[in-house]
Predict the 3D structure of the following.
Amino acid sequence: QVQLVESGGGLVQPGGSLRLSCAAFGSIFSIDTMGWYRQAPGKQRELVAAISLGGNTNYADSVKGRFTISRDNAKTTVDLQMNSLKPEDTAVYYCNAYKLTGAYYRKRYDYWGQGTQVTVSS
């Protein structure tokens, strides 16, 4: 149905910047919120940032003030601008999009990108 294609990962020094991009294609109708998750080795996956169709955003406390999420609804893309990167930001970052279905949108179906490695190191 929906495929998410990511780009922009790589190696960056502490204090540097990186921009991740994700494009959705396929059955993109009814996509609601899009966002980014990350998972570091030995740790649970966590939400980094998300943005709704209306532009409302949600950030993890650890990235507030450093990361900015944005989207283009016409192109169904979502970007994550990451500034002032820290070693603890090192993780695999996954693009996410979901659709809401069912009565009163009680059901949620998630789509995931393949993941892109972000490494922050000297």
DSSP finds no helices and eleven strands in the chain. The chain has a mean pLDDT of 95.
